[in-house]
Amino acid sequence: MKRTPPLNFLLLGPLSVRLNACEVHVSAPRQRVVMAALLLNANRVISVDRIAEYVWDGAPPPSAAATVRTYVMRLRQSLGKCASARILTRAPGYLLELGEHESDLGQFTAHRRRAAELAERGDLEGSSAELAGALALWREEPLADIPSQTLRDVEGRYLQELRLQTMELRFDTELALLRHAEVVPELVRLVRKHPLREALVGKLMLALFRSGRQSEALDLYRRTRVLLVEQLGAEPSAELREVHGHILSAHDRPHDRPHDRPRTPDPLEQPATSPVVAVAPAPTAAWERSCWPSPAQLPSVPLPLSARSGALARLQHFLTTGTMPAGMVATAVVTGRGGVGKSALALHAAHAVRGSSAHGQLYADLGGAARPLTARAVLPRFLADLGVPRDKIPEGESERESLYRSLTAGRRLLVVLDNASSTAQVRPLIPGSGGSRLLVTSRRRLADLEGAHTLRIGPLDEAGSLELLGSIVGPARIGAEPRAARSVLTVCAGLPLAIRIAGTRLLERPHWSIGHFARRLTEAPRLLDELCAGDLGVRPCLDADHAGLRRTTPAGVDPAEVFTALGAAGACSVSSSRVAVMFGCSAAQAEEALDALVEANLLGAPAEDSYRLDPLLRAYARERAQAAAVEQHGHPYMRAG
Questions:
Q1: How far, CA to CA in Å, does 447 sit from each of 8, 350, 404, 410, 443?
Q2: What is the pTM of this model?
Q3: Helices and strands (DSSP H and E) totals, the chain
């Protein structure tokens, strides 16, 4: 039986491929981007659209999908028949099958895993050797020869962070073995390069102190504190202050007895308890804390629109500088109707501030109102991601929440909860107090989430809509038919989801003029049937909003019935007095029903008692009215006229 030739993909430096000990060179720059994208997503499907975003740095041409397929075909040819069979076509893109030891990144991960296992058994010598083996796989800056700024920003920074975390693990292990003098030179070099990385500063302070250089350790703390306050507006973390306090108290003690002075042990001497052991935890505890995983779970997103730059800047500013009273976590809620781009904006901000979440990022899609995911389902995954063995996760909900808060307290995590439908979903997932940040997206305002900073985003204006459509179909096609493009965008009502679907349909049908598509949209008996592309559709978003409608008291007016009545009447706008006449109710009851529709994003906010329906909402209301008319006749709204 013919065996698949051994592969060795090198990612932790300039990208290269070795096949049967011979190096295979992929010279075409864009093919190298495709190869890097496949490798960094090994054993996972990566879509053609995502590859195109990397290849063309966020501005793919209309022919991007076909060109990507050509690049993959040529890449397969470069790798040879057997190795190319590893690249599988899987909707909506491709998957590269790769064993753990067939890339230096996979070997790096294996070394880290073995290091953790050895440390768990108390073999710190073996653990240190495994970590050194992992770091020896690194050559130069990863992805430096990949001509894609987007790919380097998304993946390259993650790889660099992974390397730094592994170095920190090794320093912790070396310090636990009392090799403080040996690690000082390397720590000095790294702290100069990363002066605001408090974990490295703390380790260097400890190494200096144990080497008899207390004044240098204290001076390093003073300089770091000044930098943190000047550049980040923040005091040192609790961990760094604790190291400083221990050094300070030990430094103030009389040193007239030799055994009070830190010393460098003989290389053959077994590690033993020393008078300054309080500066750092015991070896096992030090490893347990330092080897906590640093999850990096943020999904990737397309490049942001300039139309959202203001909102993005405000959100980034809050996530990096927002402060809360003791016991509370800085929380931001991005809210708006379905398809308006809440998740994209939140994820762009999360990626932008990822460097300030030194202990990682947790992400969960809570499913929205249609399929809400409870904290009971999310907490076990979060706990496992934070290093809790699955067989150690408590069964009880309150015990899980307590453990989660304990693990996250005092750490700098970014927790992103997408598509929350209620505050009840969010509360159990708020991290423990300290330096963590919580970022939530929801169609609801979540006004009962205490202390949350709310950012509501609305539809795009005309310029933003044109920018988005042009980024999909190309500026030249928009420039050729500007009036028709504006007609399409009027129907899309500034909703990014609708604009993306419209652009996708035009991209898939280059023989269509924009004018032809505009006529299809304006003349369609069921507009929402035209706004579907693959698994994307406007109707499911509106269905979810409708399903989440808040019902009124039995004595009130059902908002769903009001919405259906507006569809039957073909209304573009409505007032509370008009609804009161239609349903024979009080103005207050009518206003309550209309406000419930506004809350559910099925009606525009009132301006002088006039509530507006955009073209998408009108089309959806008409569908609801038609469905209701089929089910039953003689409904009150049919009599309203």
A1: 53, 22, 24, 26, 12
A2: 0.56
A3: 30, 15
